[in-house]
């Protein structure tokens, strides 16, 4: 929440957001393309990383600040990482892995999606000769610089896939699935069958981000969409037996948390669809409604602003 406020203050200071009442449609479209997240993407101080044991062979390095949660699978052959935070955090990330988890070689990095808080450190892992895996759209989106304000020099995965791929490392299996657009068009989920643990990236927020009233950030510019997002979560619960869920940010959870977040998204969809149903509403109306609708989300909020235009187009009759 603090980050959201900081970002908004910075935007207000920069004059990006007008305080005047109704925003013209042209401005709204421009706002949607504006680098609203860029404020968070610049290097910021962050608390020291810690390592939290999730299962005998799995460790989480929780996000501290805006950077992503990271999962580390330990095998006799080496390590598999899911998400890698920002480039400038690479040294601290590797240090905590070496000190608290394992000194075995890092074999693979998997990006849950193309956003820099998850894949920014790809560049350093690639320089170290480590294979980085993402969905095929995940690579394309980094090359196309789809994320407004992303750091210069972002490097994509060097192995990509669509549908499903499986890794077999040190006698362990890792399932990686790309089901289609959700939070972005590049989201993958990573499942560790031996532990029934799944990493879902930003398809789910657990903890304060979900409960504290932050609107879901639907990255329409990066090919995301709300209908697809809900479908993705339905597919995940149907396809996997899940004991623990690591979301992209926030605390470790269970399948019940995933389903609860899916239900939040469903409430957003129902609310937005009903509000736009008579065909008379503008984007400005929708923005105001998101504050007054069923879920009472704060306005302006970063996620509301960034996804507003896409949300309007997705549900306008
Ligand atoms: Zn994201």
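Q: What amino acid sequence fits the structure above?
A:
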């Amino acid at each position: 929440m603090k980050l959201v406020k900081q970002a908004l203050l910075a935007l207000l200071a920069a004059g990006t957001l007008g305080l005047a009442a109704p925003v013209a449609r042209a401005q709204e479209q421009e706002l949607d393309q504006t680098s609203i997240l860029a404020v968070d993407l610049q290097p910021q101080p962050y608390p020291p990383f810690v390592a939290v044991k999730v299962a005998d062979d799995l460790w989480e390095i929780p996000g501290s600040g805006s950077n992503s949660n990271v999962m580390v699978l330990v095998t006799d052959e080496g390590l598999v990482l899911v998400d890698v935070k920002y480039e400038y955090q690479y040294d601290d990330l590797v240090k905590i892995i070496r000190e608290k988890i394992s000194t075995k070689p890092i074999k693979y990095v998997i990006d849950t999606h193309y956003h820099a808080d998850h894949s920014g450190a790809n560049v350093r892992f690639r320089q170290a000769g480590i294979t980085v895996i993402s969905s095929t759209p995940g690579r394309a989106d980094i090359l196309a610089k789809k994320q407004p304000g992303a750091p210069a020099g972002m490097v994509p995965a060097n192995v990509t896939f669509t549908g499903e791929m499986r890794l077999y490392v040190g006698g362990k299996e890792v399932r990686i699935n790309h089901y289609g657009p959700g939070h972005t068009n590049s989201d993958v989920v990573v499942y560790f069958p031996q532990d029934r643990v799944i990493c879902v990236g930003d398809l789910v927020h657990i903890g304060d981000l979900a409960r504290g009233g932050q609107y879901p950030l639907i990255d329409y510019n990066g090919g995301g969409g709300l209908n697809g997002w809900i479908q993705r979560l339905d597919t995940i619960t149907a396809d996997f037996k899940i004991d623990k869920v690591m979301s992209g940010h926030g605390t470790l959870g269970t399948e019940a948390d995933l389903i609860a977040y899916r239900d939040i998204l469903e409430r957003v969809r129902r609310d937005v669809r009903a509000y736009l149903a008579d065909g008379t509403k503008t984007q400005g109306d929708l923005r105001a409604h998101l504050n007054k609708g069923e879920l009472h989300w704060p306005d302006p909020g970063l996620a509301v602003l960034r996804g507003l235009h896409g949300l309007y187009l997705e549900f306008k009759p």
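Q: And what stands out in the fold?
A: The two ends are 33 Å apart (CA to CA).
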